[in-house]
Design goal:
Layout: H1 3-6, H2 11-24, H3 39-42, E1 46-47, E2 55-56, E3 63-68, H4 69-75, H5 80-83, E4 90-94, E5 100-104, E6 115-119, E7 122-123, E8 144-151, H6 155-158, E9 165-171, E10 179-187, E11 190-201, E12 206-217, E13 221-222, E14 232-246, E15 249-269, E16 276-297, E17 303-317, E18 321-336, E19 342-359, E20 363-365, E21 369-386, E22 390-401, E23 405-419, E24 422-433, H7 437-440, E25 442-449, E26 462-467, E27 477-491, E28 494-519, E29 525-552, E30 555-568, H8 574-584, E31 590-601, E32 604-613, E33 624-636, E34 639-646, E35 652-653, E36 666-669, E37 671-679
Parallel strand pairs: 6-9, 26-29
Antiparallel strand pairs: 1-2, 3-8, 4-5, 6-7, 8-9, 10-11, 10-37, 11-12, 12-14, 13-36, 14-15, 15-16, 16-17, 17-18, 18-19, 19-21, 20-25, 21-22, 22-23, 23-24, 24-27, 25-26, 27-28, 28-29, 29-30, 30-31, 31-32, 32-33, 33-34, 34-37, 35-36
Length: about 675
C-alpha cells in the first residue's frame, strides 16, 4: 500500500474547513484592498496573445486566463509550471524534482507536443520533440508581469504547435523594476535559492535591469521512501533594456544565459539478463538567447513591430542523447485600420534552426545533423458588425516548412457583447503540429519482457521497439476545433468565465503494428516492431470554468474547474489501439482549484490554495487533494518575509509517471520554506 493511501484521508476536508474558518473569524483590523486590481478592472486588463495586439480581456474571443504577478507572489510558487496550476484546462503534474508534464485539454505528458510556449514572444519549444523542457525554463518570478494562457488553438496567428493552447510569459518593463532587489529562500525541498537584480536608467528615455539567480532543490523519493536521485541546481543571469526613441518609437532588448543540472534514473532495456538496468543519469541544459524588438506607432492609429532573436541551446543526457541547436527567428507585423469598423493585422516571419544530435543505446535519431526552415504569413481582420455589440474575427496563417510543405491554418470567431458586463463568443479553427525530429526517423527500444513471463510465454526475451517505416513520409497532425465561451462580471465583486470545446483530431501521430522477427545479436531475442504513422484519429470534448469573488475588500476567493473526455476511433490494429489507450490514460478527467487570499491587517497576508486532481490510469496514479499555505509579513517598506507550506495534506504523493523512458515512480513531498525580499 502506498504512503499516500495509508494516511488519514478523511482529515483533509476537515483541516481545510478549520483553516478557512479560522482566517475568516480573525479580528477585522483595518486593511488595504487585497490586490492592485479590483474585479471591475480585472476584466479590463490588457492581453496581447489572443490577437497579437493589446485588447481588454473582456473583448477577447477566446478562452483566456491571466496569471498576474500578484497571483504568483501570493501563491508561494517557485517555478512557472507551479504557477500554471492556477489555470483551468491545463494539466500540470510533477513527476520528478524539477520535471513537469504540462499540457492543455488532454494528451498530457512530459513530452506533450501541442502547446506553444513563449517568453516575451520567443518560442521555447524544442523541435527535438515539439515540446518544452520545463527544467530549462527557470525565471526570476519577480520579473514576470503576467502569464497569458489561451486554451484552444491559436495557429492562425502564432503558427504550428499552437494546437491545444498558448502560454505567453511576459516580463515587466525595465521602468517597473528600478532600484535593487535581493531575494533569499531556504527550506526542506527548496534547499536554497538566491536572486539579485538591479534596475537603473540613462536619462528619461532609457531604462535597464540586470539580474542573476540560482537555486538548489532536494530530490524526490520513490515508492519505498528512498532517494529518487533527482537533485537539481541552476544558475541564470540576464538583462532587459527599454528605450523610447521618440513619441511613437520604442526599442526593447533582452537576453539570458543559463546552466541547469538535474539527476534522474532510467531503466535501460537490454536483451540479456537482467533485461533492464536502472541507470543514474545527469541531465544538463545550457543556453544563451538574445531578443530585440522595435515598435513604431503612427498618428493614424496604425502600428508596426519588427522582432528578431537568436537562441543557442545544449542538452545532454549522456551517453544516450546530446543535442546542440542554434535558432534564428525574424517576425514582422503591421496593424492598420483600412476602413470603418476594421482592425487589420498582417505579418511575415522566418525561422531557421540547425541542430547536431548524437544518440546511442536504446534511442537513435537520424540523421546526425539537420536544418529546419519555416516561412509564414498571416492576415487577421477584426470587423465590427454592430458597434459595441457584434464583432467578426477572421484570419489565417500560411506556413511552409522543410518537413511537410505548405500548411494553411484558418480561424473564424464571433463575439457578442450585449452590454459592458457580458460577453459571448464562438470560434472554429484549424491548427497543425509539424513532425518533430523524433517523429520522422527514430528508433526507441521501449521495453524487454523476460522469457516465460506474463506477456511473453516464449523461451526468448521480447523487445518492443517503435521505429519509423522506411519510405513513408510523416505528415502534420491536424486539429479541427469548435469552441463556445461566456464571460461575465455580475457586479464589481463577482466575475465568471466559462468555456466549452470539441476538438477533432483526424490525423494524429500513433503506432501501427509492424513485423515480428527473431534476432541473433547480441543474444537471441524476439523483436516486435511498431511503426510511427499518422493513422490515429479521435476527439476531445470538455468544459472549463473559473470564478473570481471578493466577499470582502480584504478577502478574495478564486475557483476553477475543468473536465475533459478523450475518445479515439476504433481500429482493428493492436498497436494503434494500444497507443490510443496510452494517450487516453495519460491525463486526469477532471480537476479543481480553490484559492483564498486574505489580508489580515496592513502588511500581513494569509493565503490558502486547495487543489484536487482526478486519478490517472497510466501508472496507476490515484486522485489526490493537496493544500498550500502562505503567510506574508511586510516587516517594513523595503523588506518582506514569507513562510510557505506546500502539499500539506500528505507527507508525499505521486502525480505522474515518465512517459518516454522507463523510470521509477517518484513522489512529491511535503515542503516548507522561508523567503526574504529586500528592495534597495
Amino acid at each position: 500500500m502506498s504512503a499516500q493511501r495509508s494516511l488519514p484521508q478523511r482529515r483533509a476536508p476537515v483541516a481545510v474547513i478549520i483553516a478557512l474558518a479560522a482566517v475568516t473569524l480573525l479580528p477585522r483590523a483595518a486593511a488595504a484592498d487585497l490586490a492592485d486590481l479590483g474585479l471591475e478592472a480585472l476584466l479590463g486588463v490588457e492581453v496581447t496573445s489572443v490577437s497579437r495586439k493589446a485588447q481588454r480581456l473582456q473583448d477577447a474571443a477566446a478562452a483566456v486566463f491571466v496569471v498576474t504577478n500578484e497571483d504568483i507572489r501570493r501563491s508561494g510558487v517557485t517555478s512557472i509550471p507551479e504557477a500554471l496550476r492556477m489555470v483551468p484546462g491545463l494539466q500540470v503534474a510533477r513527476f520528478s524534482n524539477d520535471k513537469w508534464a504540462v499540457s492543455a485539454r488532454g494528451a498530457a505528458g512530459r513530452f506533450a507536443n501541442k502547446l506553444l510556449v513563449m517568453i516575451d514572444g520567443r518560442s521555447v519549444y524544442s523541435p527535438l520533440f515539439s515540446g518544452v523542457l520545463w527544467e530549462a525554463q527557470d525565471m526570476l518570478l519577480d520579473d514576470v508581469d503576467r502569464i497569458e494562457v489561451i486554451r484552444g488553438p491559436g495557429a492562425a496567428l502564432w503558427g504550428a504547435n499552437a494546437v491545444n493552447g498558448i502560454i505567453n510569459i511576459i516580463t515587466k518593463k525595465a521602468k517597473d523594476t528600478q532600484g535593487g532587489l535581493a531575494q533569499l529562500g531556504a527550506g526542506t525541498e527548496e534547499r536554497g535559492y538566491a536572486a539579485l537584480r538591479y534596475g537603473g536608467a540613462s536619462g528619461e528615455d532609457t531604462q535597464y535591469r540586470v539580474y542573476a539567480k540560482t537555486y538548489a532543490r532536494d530530490g524526490s523519493v520513490d515508492m519505498n521512501g528512498a532517494s529518487g536521485g533527482d537533485n537539481s541546481r541552476s544558475l541564470k543571469s540576464g538583462f532587459r533594456l527599454d528605450r523610447r526613441i521618440s513619441a511613437g518609437d520604442r526599442l526593447m532588448a533582452t537576453g539570458d544565459v543559463y546552466e541547469a543540472r538535474s539527476g534522474e534514473q532510467w531503466s535501460v532495456p537490454q536483451v540479456t539478463p537482467p533485461y533492464g538496468a536502472l541507470t543514474p543519469m545527469t541531465e544538463r541544459n545550457r543556453g544563451v538567447n538574445l531578443l530585440g524588438r522595435y515598435e513604431r506607432s503612427f498618428e493614424d492609429g496604425s502600428a508596426a513591430a519588427l522582432q528578431a532573436y537568436i537562441d543557442s541551446t545544449y542538452l545532454a543526457v549522456a551517453p544516450f542523447v546530446t543535442e546542440r541547436r542554434d535558432t534564428v527567428d525574424l517576425d514582422f507585423q503591421h496593424q492598420l485600420r483600412p476602413g470603418s469598423g476594421h482592425d487589420f493585422i498582417w505579418g511575415l516571419s522566418y525561422r531557421e534552426s540547425r541542430d547536431e544530435v548524437s544518440t546511442s543505446g536504446f534511442i537513435r535519431l537520424f540523421p546526425d545533423s539537420e536544418d529546419f526552415r519555416l516561412v509564414s504569413a498571416f492576415v487577421h481582420d477584426d470587423i465590427s458588425l454592430v458597434r459595441e455589440k457584434f464583432r467578426l474575427i477572421i484570419g489565417a496563417k500560411i506556413e511552409h516548412n522543410s518537413f511537410t510543405g505548405t500548411e494553411p491554418q484558418p480561424n473564424v470567431r464571433l463575439l457578442w457583447t450585449p452590454d459592458a458586463s457580458h460577453t459571448v463568443w464562438a470560434a472554429a479553427s484549424r491548427a497543425v503540429r509539424t513532425p518533430s525530429r523524433a517523429d520522422r526517423e527514430s528508433i526507441l527500444d521501449e521495453s524487454v519482457t523476460p522469457p516465460f513471463s506474463a506477456g511473453n510465454p516464449s523461451p526468448l526475451p521480447l523487445l518492443v521497439q517503435s521505429t519509423f517505416q522506411p519510405g513513408v513520409k510523416r505528415l502534420s497532425e491536424k486539429l479541427d476545433a469548435l469552441e463556445l465561451g461566456y464571460r461575465a462580471q455580475f457586479d464589481p465583486r463577482l466575475a465568471l468565465d466559462l468555456a466549452a470545446f470539441s476538438n477533432r483530431y483526424p490525423r494524429l501521430r500513433g503506432l501501427v503494428t509492424g513485423p515480428t522477427t527473431v534476432q541473433l545479436f547480441p543474444a537471441p531475442y524476439v523483436l516486435q516492431q511498431f511503426y510511427l504513422d499518422n493513422g490515429l484519429s479521435g476527439r476531445t470534448t470538455g468544459f472549463e470554468a473559473s470564478l473570481d469573488w471578493r466577499p470582502l475588500n480584504r478577502w478574495r476567493l478564486q475557483g476553477s474547474y475543468s473536465l475533459v473526455h478523450v475518445k479515439f476511433d476504433a481500429s482493428s490494429d493492436f498497436g494503434r489501439n494500444t497507443y490510443a489507450q496510452f494517450i487516453r490514460d495519460s491525463a486526469p478527467r477532471s480537476q479543481y482549484s480553490i484559492r483564498s487570499l486574505l489580508d489580515l491587517e496592513p502588511g500581513r497576508q494569509f493565503d490558502l490554495w486547495l487543489r484536487h486532481v482526478a486519478g490517472i490510469a497510466r501508472g496507476d496514479i490515484p486522485a489526490y487533494t493537496e493544500l498550500d499555505a502562505r503567510y506574508g509579513w511586510q516587516v517594513r517598506k523595503d523588506l518582506d518575509l514569507s513562510l510557505v507550506g506546500q502539499n500539506l495534506l500528505h507527507s508525499r504523493h505521486r502525480e505522474y509517471l515518465e512517459d518516454l523512458v522507463h523510470s521509477p515512480l517518484l513522489q512529491v513531498q511535503r515542503g516548507f520554506y522561508v523567503q526574504a525580499r529586500w528592495h534597495f
